[in-house]
Amino acid sequence: MRIADLASLRVAIWGLGREGHAAHTALRQRLPELPLTVFCSDAEAHFMATDHAHDRYVTEAPSAADLAAFDVVIKSPGISMYRPELIEAQRNGTRFTSATALWFAENPDARVIAVTGTKGKSTTSALIAHLLRALGRRTALAGNIGLPLLELLDPPLAPDWWVVELSS
User: Fold this and answer.
1) Structure confidence by residue, pLDDT tens digits, 37-73
2) Residues 40 and 75 in one domain
3) Which of 86, 90, 126, 145 has its CA 20 to 30 A from that of 61?
C-alpha cells in the first residue's frame, strides 16, 4: 500500500515514537488534507502540538471499537500484533501497516539489505554499510539505526544500497 492509496481512506497512527512521527510527517507532506487521528501518550501529543486542522490526538489507549473505525492504522513497531484490541479490529476489517511497509511500497526497486534478529542487528547493519561504502557504493543506513525510513522518502541523491535495521 502506497501513501497515495491512503487519500480516500480513514487513517490513524498508533504510537508516536520515531516511526510514528516520521509517518505523520510523510503523510502531512504528501496528503496534507487527509484527516488523521493519532493515538499517543499525553507527552507525545504535547510534543507534536500542531495546529494542523486535520489532526486529532487521542491520548487514551484505543479500544477495538476505536481501531475498527479506521480503514488503515499505521502501527508503531513496539505495539504487538497480538494485542486483543488489534486482533478484534482486524476481524472487523481494519488493516494494520507500518511506516516501514509504506516506505517499501514507495520504493519497490530499491536495493535493500535488511537486517533483523535478536542480537547484533546494529553492529551487523553498521558493518555492512561500512563495507559497501568502502567499495565506493553510495549507502544509506536507516531503520532502527540512523533515521526512520519515511524520513528518507525523497533523498536528494538516491543511494545505491539501503542497509535497513528492522525490528524483529
Assistant:
1) 999 988 887 776 666 678 888 989 999 999 999 999 9
2) yes
3) 145
